[in-house]
Amino acid sequence: MKKVKVSDKHEFLTDKKMDYYLVNNKKEKFDIEKIEMSSLHIIHDNKPYQVDLSAYDLSEGKMVIIVNGKKYNVIVADENETLYRKIGSIKKDIPGETFLKAPMPGMIVEVKVVEGQVVEKDDTLIVLKAMKMENVLKSPISGTINKIMVVENQKIEKDTALIQF
Q1: Burial class for 143, CB neighbours closer than 10 Å (0-12, 13-18, 19+)
Q2: Which of 57, 56, 59, 102 has the alpha carbon at shortest distance from 81?
């Protein structure tokens, strides 16, 4: 079950079943065709919808979608994603050392911090381009940047260590 919040106005509980969706416990049928990596064509109740993903922030589960030319801010979360957001993509590989790791493969577009910089929780650290979208990676903790392990335009894989605190 996922909780979807649209433009701070509407909230829905959704669950995908075999050939339909439950939306607020009501059975709904959608005909969905993937056009590109970030573009869908959806038919619901005989009405067509062109849906394009404009931006996505994995750390917050936030996205900006454009539906038939109109922009919406959306937050999607299930229990696992809520837990992920609480802990972030922070990993401890060696006792006493904490790393920010890549949540997905992609390319480093911009590193917004420098070694030795003190950051607060939720400060923007890195912009990662993946699936034609720019994802903002934020600091999961308050602390000092000990080492930056990537450079701009570097291709990385999922779980690549990006920053050591």
Answers
A1: middle
A2: 59
pTM over 0.70: no
* Final residue before a domain boundary, out of 18, 46, 79: 79
Q: For residue 75, count other CB atoms closer than 10 A to its CB.
A: 17
Radius of gyration in angstroms for the set of CA atoms belonging to the chain, rounded to a whole number:
18
The domain in which residue 105 lies consists of: 88-164
Report yes or no: 101 and 115 within 8 Å, Cβ to Cβ: no
Query: What would the two tokens of residue 8 be?
Result: 């701070």
Q: What is the DSSP letter of 100?
A: E
Q: Which residue, chain included where needed, has tokens 């009405």?
A: 47
Q: pLDDT by residue (tens digit) across 24-57?
A: 989 999 999 988 878 899 999 999 999 988 877 6
Q: Is 131 helix (H, G, I), strand (E, B) or coil?
A: coil
- Asked if residues 89 and 79 have their Cβ atoms less than 8 Å apart, the reply is no
Range 157-161, long-range pairs (CB < 8 A, 24+ positions): 157/102, 157/105, 158/102, 158/103, 158/104, 158/105, 159/91, 159/101, 159/102, 160/101, 160/102, 161/91, 161/93, 161/99, 161/100, 161/101
Number of domains in the chain: 2
First to last CA, the chain: 34
